[in-house]
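**User:** Hello, beginner here. Are you able to go through the protein record under this note? It all follows right here:
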Amino acid sequence: MCNSLAPAPYRARDDEHEALPAETGTSRKDYPPAPEPLPVPVMDNHTHLDFRHGVIEVSVRDALDAAESVGVQGAVQVGCDLESSRFTVKAVDADPRLLGAVAIHPNDAPEYAERDELETALAEIEQLAGHPRIRAIGETGLDFFRTQGEGLAHQRYSFRRHIDIAKRLDLTLQIHDRDAHDDVVQVLREEGAPGRVVFHCFSGDEELARTCNEHGWYMSFAGTMTFKNAGNLRAALAVAEPGRILVETDSPFLTPHPHRGRPNASYMVPYTVRAMADVTGSDLAELCSRLAKNTVDAYGSWA
């Protein structure tokens, strides 16, 4: 049962997302206080419950209980390799508040390829994706920050294969896009995008937001949009179509302001939602209702 499903030991991925402030004591590793609950429940559409960042090990049930207490009624648990994708299948079986996504992360694809294991890994991802509560193939995409040289060819190949799996299984595609906006869009156009595409942790500008509007792709905003230096994300959110926006944590990473640098979790979503309401000039309850509807449109029902 979920009560006994504890996360695996944390594998460091901080530098894939941002340079976090140096941790100078326990206070930088503790989870922040809970925010004020949201008036209407929403879902966190991207979290990594098998990663741990900080001094406290939290079970899946405890993490979801904390989220539910502040109006985050469900989450999408996301796999990045075979180990975390297998964990994801176990987690969605253990707690009905979870849906799942499985994939080989673009920065892991070259490592599988170098071991001549990429094809086997992709075959298992497709098998895992057959579970009825696995609703997305992700996170997959391109990352030009962490991978260069020959590894990029393996990334592109893996991305195309994931797109094919998502289309054949009629699953949502969750995209990891770091410093690769134009190339990600090009591959989607060349391959033909699945019916539902989510730019996880949206990192583009107004131009990419308008491209997503044009193609009907979802833009998922994380705690990064609350950072002082993230004017491009707020500008993108301001032009994004209301029916195409989602919210996520990417926890345990990307903790929103004012707790940046401390461990993140799904219960931190309200900080980002309130910042989104400020940027868009939306009534908070109406925005929550819109985010909840968009999330179900993107992934299907949690029921």
Observations:
- The beta strands are 42-47, 72-78, 98-102, 134-143, 172-178, 197-199, 218-221, 245-247.
